[in-house]
Amino acid sequence: MRSQHFLLLLYTVLSECESAKTQNSKRKFPNDFRFGAATAAYQIEGGWNADGKTESIWDHVAHTKPCAIKNCSNGDVAADSYHLYKRDVEIMRELGLDYYRFSLSWPRILPTGFPDKINEAGVQYYNNLIDEMLKYNIEPVVTIYHWDLPQKLQEMGGWTNPYIIDWYTDYARVAFELFGEKVKNWITVNEPEQICYFGYGNNLHAPRLNIKGVADYLCAKNILLAHAKAYHVYDEEYRPNQGGTIFISLSAQYYDYEFKEYKDAAEDANDFTWAIYSHPIFSKYGDFPSSVKERVKAKSIQQGFPRSRLPELTPTEIETIRGSSDYFGLNHYFTLYVYRNESVKGLYPSPSKNDDLEAAIYQKEEWKGGQMNINKIVPSGFYKLLTKIKNDYNNPPVIITENGFATKRGLDDDDRVTYITLYINAMLDAIDDGSDIRSYTVWSMMDSLEWLEGFSERYGLYEVDFESPERTRTPRKSAFVYKQIVRTRELDWHYEPETDVMTIDEGH
């Protein structure tokens, strides 16, 4: 398995990584530390209109603009997990996972978007998957919303319509009722930044509204309130009997500075991209970060708006949102350097979030990249991010809900092995320095449709043959390496798989 190439790459990157300060042969994890893998409904399920499921915003984008997704791909079949869920559970058993994170498809469960009609076939699919997992002691971690909004709700404004706070909460309540006796870990929303900025303030994700500096901020307020309302419904009405946990999953890339004069710009970049969601939930006093409120308000007045384009949170709303997450769910992939000088003035469309921030980003040429070029191997940034979360929010319990690396098609993924090894090592450094990190979830268990990038980026521990009717799943080297970490509960720098045949260990 090209061990020499892998070790050379690993040690080359290690020599450049400040965070890899502990490079012993083996590193142990805390006794109660847990490991999982993640996927999302639209990316793997297929069955886009099967058994009563209706159209999501991603179905709509793929079908109305057939080549909006790279190579004219779509999620109509994807990995066909709607039919192959037993093979998926077999993979979980092969890896020895403690838990599996997957998402529910809103239009598969509620075809109208509302609870007036529950699609029994969709419910049965998720019950079948959950039951198959529980049979082998694999815990379900269920994301209620991972980007596949019913298209009908989008036509009524989607996440910019404040009524979606109730629409989403009604949907969440249905999920708690249907699955809450079996599911003990809920994620309300996955990556609000990608939902709001990529989908409403840009055209990088469905619904591709591209209404910059307005729609994305409306979305941000509504999604925080929807999350918080669902949290309180679960906490007050379901937790007493079901006894589970509920939290939000935030995408936080680390914005760093290479030169001291850009320290404030880097701090603002972190505030605008992820603390805009974390600060209202995890900070002592709640609300949006002051830097975001002040910059957006000043820009808005300058542009002729009568008020800030960032809607205010009322005192009641601040209290509703503050503290509404049992864990800090963290999705992390890469690090960026930030600068702010005269060259960035007028660089971005006005109004827009980027113009409000008024900073620019770059990465070092020597940083090793993958198939997703921005996803470069900088584990020191992961350590700094985890430390910042600890320091800013009084060390909340953290669950790494996504972390991974994209490669090309094929079983060759030494770069992914390097990435996962170094990032887990950085996480262990953070744990040693006091960060309360409970679990690690690799993205992803198998190849999937990576949104507008289609099948060109492969994040899976298992390769999926999307050209075969069987959608065959085959383990890559990273699957064997991750299995060894999970099985031994230690990070072994020198581990090299001796086989390419994956088996299920006794007990799984």
Which geometry do the CA atoms define? globular
Strand neighbour order, sheet with most strands: 2-3-4-5-6-8-11-12
Number of β-strand runs: 15
> Sheet with the most strands?
8 strands, parallel, barrel
Give unreliable regions as ranges.
Answer: 1-13, 15-22
**% residues in beta strands:** 5-15%
- How many helices? The count is 17
In short:
This is beta-glucosidase. By secondary structure, the chain is an alpha/beta fold.
Question: What does this protein structure show overall?
Answer:
The chain has 508 residues and is α/β, with parallel strands linked by helices. Helices cover 41% and strands 14% of the residues. It is built from 17 helices and 15 strands. The protein has helices at residues 3-16, 41-44, 57-64, 81-95, 106-109, 120-135, 151-154, 164-179, 192-199, 215-242, 263-282, 290-302, 315-321, 353-357, 379-392, 414-432, 477-488, and strands at 26-28, 34-38, 99-103, 139-145, 185-190, 245-251, 254-256, 328-331, 335-339, 360-362, 398-402, 437-443, 462-464, 473-475, 490-492. It has an 8-stranded parallel barrel with strand order 2-3-4-5-6-8-11-12, surrounded by 6 helices. Strands 7-9-10 form a 3-stranded mixed β-sheet. Strands 1-15 form a two-stranded antiparallel ribbon. The radius of gyration is 22 Å and the shape is globular. The chain starts with a helix and ends in a 16-residue tail after the last strand. It comes from Parnassius apollo. Belongs to the glycosyl hydrolase 1 family.
